[in-house]
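name: query_chain
kind: protein
chains: 1
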Amino acid sequence: MTMATAPLRPMTTSSEEAGAPGAPHLTSVVDVGPDDGRLAHRATLGSTRGAPAPRSRLEAENELVGFVCDLLQAPDSAVGTLSGGLDESASAILRAARDARPHVRRPSLVLPQSAHPAWFTAAAAVGVRVFVAPVSLDGSVQVGPMTELIRDDTVLVIASAPSYTHGRVDPVAWIAAASAAHAVPLHVDASRGGWVLAYADLAGRVRLPWDFSVPGVSSITLDVGPDRGTDADVSMVVHRDPADRRALHAASLAPRGPLESGVAWSAPSRAVSGLTETVREVGHLRLARLALDALDATAALADGLLDVRGVSLAARPDATTLVLRTDATCDAFVLADALHHRGWTAQPFFPDQGPAMLRLPVTAAMLPLVPQCLAAIEDAVDEARARGRAQVDPTLERLLEQLDTRDVSEYAAELLLDAAAVLDESDVDQPERRQATNLLLRAAAPEIRELLLTYQRDRLSRPVRKGSPILTFAPEVDPGEE
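structure:
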């Protein structure tokens, strides 16, 4: 769980510290004019004339990948690539797995029901069928049913460490053995908490093996930095075999257009440069301390929640995500709004089966704030129980019943969402609540819910326009006239 007033961000060095002996050199370009020759060549792209040339994007990326490979106990042959978040990584990985077996006419993917939604979206985007293995109420994956789904047309199997819906580590070793028996690569999605798990593993605090120490794990996706520990949306795909990474690059080239030279120099982005400097400055030891603090905070919160009436843990967390269920006296959406009103973040989500649940991510910054967090949860639960079990607005419910699930117009969807938004904004005590909208989504049939969610995301991602700019320039003054 994160608190808006205490975010955990990458460590940076001020301009004064950058000039201190032994301080890391930050590769920011300052005071560069449009006609300055320093823009022409990497050797003159320092922050001042004569300063050391900054690293290229490739050099910064290789350093960052090497840091993570050491963390994941990857073999010497391992290679990795940075990408802009899990959505981008999942699409590239699935496309490469599909193209690696061109003889398969209808490629398929096998993954647990608790996997991250990005994999389902990516499969639909690249034309790969999805076979979903069920999970138990506590998020445990049954290896037998999952193994039975692996077929001759399976191009990839996904396991999670930890899972998106319950925060559990899947039995990676057993799934890897089953995948190897069918000669199908296994990818481990560790994008939501794997960074913490890796340090916990090195400290002897992980029960189930999940990284490259497990034979049969062909690749791993990892967020660069602890969960919500940086403000950069960067993830990394690490491959055991360089040939698999070459397939990933080949997939990104089709359909082919102009090809860039592999030796061209380019500056690293601010995110990549900042992350590289952060891991170099902080180092494994202090990052491990942050990871273990986050795990301690998660365990303390999990123990404290056992005494809170109205909510229960959906599963004992293996990493740094708490997943809560609410009983009949406490509505999950009302609880989420009450927590948000107190400054804490909780994300409601709809599992494939059963009532809505809440995801509460935890960071190292939470460790000294555990008592305040538990007090806020107790207060929010009391408020939710006092409000009672929330029900969708009767008018919206009648409109939902009249919708044809086979053909829902954009106008009807927008009308429903507008009406729910008006109900949410009418609460003067909590003007930012989302209870009515979430109740509408919960009451809708699954196929209508997906459509409404699509329109809802579209509504939330609209540009902020202020009109076309009007340019007015002051007349230039001849220095001789002054």
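note: The two ends are 61 Å apart (CA to CA).
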